[in-house]
Specification:
The structure holds two protein chains of two kinds. By secondary structure, chain A is α+β, with helices and mostly antiparallel strands. Chain A has one domain (about 1-370): Cytochrome-c3 Hydrogenase, chain B (Orthogonal Bundle). Chain A has 16 helices and eight strands. A three-stranded antiparallel sheet of chain A has the order 1-2-3. In chain A, strands 6-7-8 form a three-stranded antiparallel sheet. The longest helix of chain A has 29 residues, at about 100-125. The two termini of chain A are about 25 Å apart. Chain B contains 14 helices and two strands, in the order H-H-H-E-E-H-H-H-H-H-H-H-H-H-H-H. The two termini of chain B are about 35 Å apart. In chain B, a hairpin with a 2-residue loop joins strand 1 and strand 2. In chain B, about 70% of the residues lie in helices and about 0% in strands. Chain B has helices spanning about 1-30, 45-55, 65-85, 100-110, 115-125, 125-160, 165-170, 175-180, 180-195, 210, 220-245, 260-265, 270-290, 300-325; strands at about 90, 95. Chain B has one domain. Chain B is mostly helical. Classes of the chains: A alpha+beta, B mainly alpha. The interface of A and B includes residues 22 and 126 of A.
């Protein structure tokens, strides 16, 4: 940092945003160089919440390591678990019963809505509006209650296991989900009135944090961040897993490339997830919720990779196996890390207030960036 | 006179507690939650408990801060708020200081507020504080113009700078009803400008939480912070009281022209209830803004003032002057 301070131009000052700062939603540390209110440079510093999860996974068996991944992107814990379960199933060639597949997809989409709800509230809070946070949590609570009933947990669910899901859905599950869908649909107009249509909000979002499609690709952005720039990258469409290829849903694309486009992608994705849930909730097939698997799982020697679409983008699991009961090496590809790398490019030349808005639209979850 | 003075100072202390509780209740109501409801009946004593907490907390002065200015700033904020209470007419026969240039006094003293904020931001030796103070300086200086011009329009109509005479000029109807659309425009601009002048959301850039942690009072703790906090709420009360006095008739009951019977019935409601009712209505309005709107960006904030509000209010004052000369109002 000493050279950095020496190299700043006259009039520039360096500010540490974080590791404890209301805008970073976690222990992210940004060293920003500003001139007045204008941002010259943003330098993210990581490492404050590094738990060396990849190394930990190497000493855990193929049944155990899945639980650690709930602690990475804690807002998409179902989807992280899902990726790991799929990867192990791929290696062992386990046929997952269709009931388990449908339950998994339902849980994924509920998680996606819950995650976007939280993002929506936190995003508005970054812009100085506190009320949307509470309104978003009202709906998110309904999802958490559904999760609690079926999985026994509200945040780190650990519900997906190799071969299916841990236990069958709760008898109330279908009726509770339908109640939630009705609740959500009645509140969407409230969201648009409170935030999307607000003139101050639109002025704060439109035309700031521009990211072109080419830049989005070269920074490795995925998920709603890239789709806001018009890059088609929905893993559910491009590399379908489970039953996504039989479902009828749309990949949301916006071409604006600014903060508002990224905002609209996420808001519209919530409705798509609702549509997926509606297609499946009355059609959960009868049968087993878990395939018969051996007590001790041993992946054959080789390399296995599986990617899924989390609420934040493409999440990948790469397992190198030597044929034992534990992986030789595990590598996770987390969406937040690549999305964060575009922040400096987007923020240069804009105002300090806009930096907070941009970070909001990137939907950063720090334990996911910093494993 | 001494008793009246003590009464106003007591009111000053009470208002802080009441307004903080009111803000929390309004916020809770808008945010579909309960709000304070544990301390005392219905949570009424919550702000008292908070004050006690702040009183016993250590008031730290950071290393490297300019100790004298750092400790002086909250007292200036408080002093300005106290001085502003003097000319306000709380009821038909209760005014601490019947000043013949009341309006001028209020506008002059309220611009001293920015000094305490700049002082706090500069003396804290903290980059966030400094940025908050600079933002606040730009903001308050800009929005004073619009607020001043809106106030001028009522001065033009009533022909007096004395707050009591302005109220008496509304005996046959409040200015907001008598003054046609131009006064309504002036009223709207006044509300926007004073929201900005008191650093309230959506114009709370000086203490923008998500950007500057707490802005100019980041380094303050304990009672020193409480003084800033109290001064903010008292300022909100004062600007709303001024707004009520100028546009909504202050303590003047709701009168319609020469309907003697109706006016007589309205006079039965005590004048202090009219005054506080109108003031608290405006305070509620400002709280409603805070819990509904997102914050503006600094350049958008200055654009709004210099490109829209100021030209409109200048034109509006001309229109109202013309109206007053030609006697086009009721």
């Amino acid at each position: 940092m000493v050279e950095e301070i020496g190299s700043t131009a006259a009039g520039d000052i360096i500010i540490n945003v974080g590791p404890q700062h209301p805008a970073t939603h976690g222990v992210l540390h940004l060293v920003i160089t500003i001139n007045g209110e204008t941002i010259q440079k943003v330098e993210p510093h990581l490492g404050y919440i590094h738990r060396s999860i990849e190394k930990m996974c190497e000493s855990l068996t193929y049944r155990q390591f899945i639980y650690v991944t709930s602690r990475m992107d804690y807002l998409s814990s179902h989807i992280n678990n899902h990726a790991c379960a799929l990867c192990v199933e791929k290696g062992l060639q386990i046929e997952v019963p269709s009931r388990a597949q449908v339950i998994r997809v339902l849980m994924d989409e509920l998680t996606r809505i819950a995650s976007h709800e939280l993002w929506w509230g936190a995003m508005a809070m970054d812009l100085g509006a506190f009320t949307p946070f509470f309104h978003a949590f009202r709906e998110r609570e309904a999802i958490n209650d559904i999760m609690e009933e079926t999985c026994g947990a509200r945040l780190t669910m650990n519900y997906m296991v190799p071969g299916g899901v841990m236990q069958d859905i709760h008898p109330n599950f279908q009726s509770r989900v339908k109640e939630f869908i009705a609740l959500f649909k009645s509140k969407v107009s409230e969201y648009n009135e409170l935030v999307t249509g607000n003139i101050i909000f639109q002025n704060r979002m439109k035309g700031v944090g521009n990211l072109s499609a080419a830049d989005a690709i070269s920074f490795g952005c995925t998920g709603p961040t890239a789709r806001g720039s018009g890059v088609s990258c929905d893993i559910r469409k491009l590399y379908p897993y489970e039953i996504y290829d039989t479902l009828n849903f749309e990949e949301i694309l916006e071409t604006g490339g600014d903060s508002f486009a990224r905002y609209m992608v996420r808001v519209r994705e919530m409705s798509q997830s609702i549509s997926i849930i509606e297609q499946l909730i009355d059609n959960i097939p009868e049968g087993d919720f878990q395939a018969k698997t051996k007590a001790v799982l041993k992946l054959p020697k080789g390399e296995f990779y599986q990617r899924v679409e989390t609420a934040r983008g493409e999440f990948g699991v790469y397992i190198v196996s030597e044929g034992g009961t534990t992986p030789y090496r595990i590598k996770y590809r987390s969406p937040g890390f690549s999305n964060l790398s575009a922040l400096d490019h987007m923020a240069r030349g804009s105002k300090l207030g806009d930096l907070v808005a941009m970070m909001g639209t990137l939907d950063l979850v720090i334990p996911d960036i910093d494993r | 006179m001494v008793i009246a003075g003590i009464a106003v100072i007591t009111l000053f202390a009470l208002l802080g507690l009441v307004l903080v509780l009111m803000e929390r209740r309004v916020a809770a109501w808008i945010q579909i939650r309960l709000g304070p409801n544990r301390v005392g009946p219905g949570g009424m004593l919550q702000s008292l408990a908070d004050t006690l907490k702040l009183l016993v907390k250590e008031g730290m002065t950071p290393d490297g801060a300019d100790k004298f200015l750092f400790n002086l700033a909250p007292f200036i904020a408080m002093m300005v708020a106290m001085l502003l209470m003097a000319p306000i007419a709380f009821a038909s026969d209760f005014q601490l200081w019947n000043l013949n240039i009341g309006v001028l006094y209020v506008t002059a003293i309220s611009s001293l507020m920015v000094i305490s904020i700049l002082m706090a931001g500069w003396a804290s030796n903290n980059k966030y504080s400094l940025m908050g103070a600079m933002r606040s300086g730009a903001q308050i200086v800009s929005y004073e113009l619009s607020a001043g011009l809106s106030i001028m329009s009522i001065v033009v109509l009533s022909g007096s700078l004395n707050l009591n005479e302005i109220i008496l000029s509304q005996a046959d109807g409040w200015w907001i009803f008598k003054g046609h659309i131009p006064v309504v425009i002036a009223f709207i601009i006044f509300i926007i400008a004073v929201t900005a002048e008191t650093n309230r959301a959506p114009f709370d850039l000086a203490e923008a939480e998500s950007e500057l942690t707490a802005g100019f009072h980041t380094e303050y703790s304990g009672m020193k912070f409480a003084l800033f906090f109290l001064a903010e709420y008292i300022n909100v009360f004062i600007v709303c009281a001024i707004g009520a006095t100028l546009f909504l008739g202050g303590w003047m009951p709701f009168h319609i022209g020469h309907w003697q019977a109706f006016n007589h019935v309205m006079d039965f409601i005590p004048s202090s209830i009219w005054f506080f009712g109108k003031t608290f209505f405006l305070i509620f309005l400002i709280m409603w803004f805070r819990w509904t709107f997102p914050r503006l960006r600094i350049d958008q904030l200055l654009d709004l003032e210099w490109k829209y509000l100021l030209p409109i209010s200048m034109f509006n004052v001309l229109l109202i002057t013309l109206m007053a000369i030609l006697g086009w109002h009721f």
